[in-house]
């Protein structure tokens, strides 16, 4: 059984994520569910061009059906910083169900020079640096991080789509 519009792999999560990749690629030229609505919004099906380029997703692991948090690192000079996120942009999905996901963070994260030091530290802890749940991470003004991970989509039982956004 498939729940995606254009794909029928037999896995609902894989089919929805493939639909999201197809819709995102169209935008970038390279019963209604929240995912279907977000895809329609991304494509501008709800009236005019949307200006959106991403359907942010939260994935839930089969084992215990808990939200999946991905980790990746960035390098700044000689420093390496590990960041965690529950929000992802699907970059690609292959035939075997492997996907490349990009971690998304609120655009406020890391703007040290413009913010009070205590506020920046609180923002890092509660809004994207290492959140404990999706509710700890701001989903306003999500931005692409350039941090990508590879996952096996067969390990997930559920996908939640956030409203379409302009992340690039």
From TrEMBL:
<dbReference type="InterPro" id="IPR019593">
    <property type="entry name" value="Spore_coat_protein_Z/Y"/>
</dbReference>
<protein>
    <submittedName>
        <fullName>Spore coat protein</fullName>
    </submittedName>
</protein>
<dbReference type="Pfam" id="PF10612">
    <property type="entry name" value="Spore-coat_CotZ"/>
</dbReference>
<feature type="region of interest" description="Disordered">
    <location>
        <begin position="116"/>
        <end position="136"/>
    </location>
</feature>
<keyword id="KW-0167">Capsid protein</keyword>
<keyword id="KW-0946">Virion</keyword>
């Amino acid at each position: 059984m498939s729940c995606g519009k254009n794909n029928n792999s037999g896995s609902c999560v894989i089919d929805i994520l493939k639909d999201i990749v197809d819709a995102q690629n169209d935008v970038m030229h390279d019963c209604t569910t929240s995912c279907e609505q977000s895809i329609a919004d991304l494509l501008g099906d709800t009236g005019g061009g949307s200006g959106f380029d991403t359907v942010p997703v939260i994935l839930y692991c089969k084992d215990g059906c808990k939200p999946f948090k991905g980790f990746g690192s960035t390098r700044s000079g000689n420093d390496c910083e590990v960041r965690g996120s529950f929000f992802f942009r699907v970059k690609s999905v292959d035939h075997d169900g492997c996907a490349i996901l990009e971690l998304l963070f609120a655009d406020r994260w890391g703007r040290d020079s413009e913010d009070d030091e205590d506020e920046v530290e609180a923002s890092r802890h509660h809004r994207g640096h290492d959140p404990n749940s999706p509710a700890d991470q701001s989903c306003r003004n999500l931005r692409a991080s350039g941090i990508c991970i590879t996952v096996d989509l067969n390990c997930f039982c559920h996908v939640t789509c956030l409203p379409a956004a302009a992340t690039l």
